[in-house]
């Protein structure tokens, strides 16, 4: 009986050019991060579930891939890198002076709904700026996010900025309890306009109500900030976004920036500026991040923080296809001539020359012909020579 073995749902094999394109994106991102002073850290692929449950992780429980542990404790495949790195910063790096600039290049794992085509294993490159607060820290992270997409050679892209404080300000004016605030957040994030209007109907006399009704539509250029001020009056959050934009524009980054005040995902996790990056050709955000000032303190060290992660595969798919190197020569060598054969292979551009495992020259020529090579390089007692295929 013929055995058919498939990969688990949400996973797949990646071959040749896909691997090359992924490495290209990773290498460009890592080069940028190192240039900006970030140091690499790596965390385990499996962590205790309690680590994410207690930290208020931005990843909901149902999207975590759970695995067993010999001790009987519940573990999960790493669903995000920020929480484990916050743990590292508060423990193993406790004696290291702040701010700490850390970067990572590792996979995260998500249990996506069945048959939706999403990947369960997502290679990410990202940075965390630990122990820095204020405008300059947020500017550093945002421009690094923009430069990340620029360095990868992404086609037309932009980064959308929001602020967790704007939603909190509006919700506080309605005197909502935590459950009601979470329900509104979910409706805004899901752009469920009908349900949102019904929920807010008892609050029609409150000026904040109109702003909340419009919140999921408040996206675009700087006109969005003007509309937010018209609806909600002066707020610290919108003033802060104005200040960010002024600095970004002065530095030449204004062309990449837009705003989305309806970006209220995981509002209990993020504490300030939040942002997402979008590239033409990708169906969803390829980059996301924001400020999370309360996370590191959960692990015993007070340190404000901000950061972002890039979805490497999604960015790679938006780039022009990378051509694989064309094999031009096969090296046939007789016993005792391995060093000369290796020298020939290593002296050619990568992927254009390879050793032949064949015993006879004729077999090497046949192999070269099948693989589309132009010639066989021969090393034997007569020296080195070329034999055309």
From TrEMBL:
<dbReference type="InterPro" id="IPR004516">
    <property type="entry name" value="HisRS/HisZ"/>
</dbReference>
<keyword id="KW-0328">Glycosyltransferase</keyword>
<dbReference type="InterPro" id="IPR045864">
    <property type="entry name" value="aa-tRNA-synth_II/BPL/LPL"/>
</dbReference>
<dbReference type="InterPro" id="IPR006195">
    <property type="entry name" value="aa-tRNA-synth_II"/>
</dbReference>
<feature type="binding site">
    <location>
        <position position="128"/>
    </location>
    <ligand>
        <name>L-histidine</name>
    </ligand>
</feature>
<feature type="binding site">
    <location>
        <position position="124"/>
    </location>
    <ligand>
        <name>L-histidine</name>
    </ligand>
</feature>
<keyword id="KW-0808">Transferase</keyword>
<comment type="subunit">
    <text>Heteromultimer composed of HisG and HisZ subunits.</text>
</comment>
<feature type="domain" description="Aminoacyl-transfer RNA synthetases class-II family profile">
    <location>
        <begin position="22"/>
        <end position="261"/>
    </location>
</feature>
<dbReference type="InterPro" id="IPR004517">
    <property type="entry name" value="HisZ"/>
</dbReference>
<keyword id="KW-0368">Histidine biosynthesis</keyword>
<dbReference type="GO" id="GO:0005737">
    <property type="term" value="C:cytoplasm"/>
</dbReference>
<dbReference type="GO" id="GO:0000105">
    <property type="term" value="P:L-histidine biosynthetic process"/>
</dbReference>
<keyword id="KW-0028">Amino-acid biosynthesis</keyword>
<comment type="pathway">
    <text>Amino-acid biosynthesis; L-histidine biosynthesis; L-histidine from 5-phospho-alpha-D-ribose 1-diphosphate: step 1/9.</text>
</comment>
<protein>
    <recommendedName>
        <fullName>ATP phosphoribosyltransferase regulatory subunit</fullName>
    </recommendedName>
</protein>
<feature type="binding site">
    <location>
        <begin position="80"/>
        <end position="82"/>
    </location>
    <ligand>
        <name>L-histidine</name>
    </ligand>
</feature>
<feature type="binding site">
    <location>
        <begin position="269"/>
        <end position="270"/>
    </location>
    <ligand>
        <name>L-histidine</name>
    </ligand>
</feature>
<dbReference type="Pfam" id="PF13393">
    <property type="entry name" value="tRNA-synt_His"/>
</dbReference>
<dbReference type="GO" id="GO:0140096">
    <property type="term" value="F:catalytic activity, acting on a protein"/>
</dbReference>
<keyword id="KW-0963">Cytoplasm</keyword>
<comment type="similarity">
    <text>Belongs to the class-II aminoacyl-tRNA synthetase family. HisZ subfamily.</text>
</comment>
<dbReference type="InterPro" id="IPR041715">
    <property type="entry name" value="HisRS-like_core"/>
</dbReference>
<dbReference type="GO" id="GO:0006427">
    <property type="term" value="P:histidyl-tRNA aminoacylation"/>
</dbReference>
<comment type="function">
    <text>Required for the first step of histidine biosynthesis. May allow the feedback regulation of ATP phosphoribosyltransferase activity by histidine.</text>
</comment>
<dbReference type="GO" id="GO:0016757">
    <property type="term" value="F:glycosyltransferase activity"/>
</dbReference>
<dbReference type="GO" id="GO:0004821">
    <property type="term" value="F:histidine-tRNA ligase activity"/>
</dbReference>
<feature type="binding site">
    <location>
        <position position="110"/>
    </location>
    <ligand>
        <name>L-histidine</name>
    </ligand>
</feature>
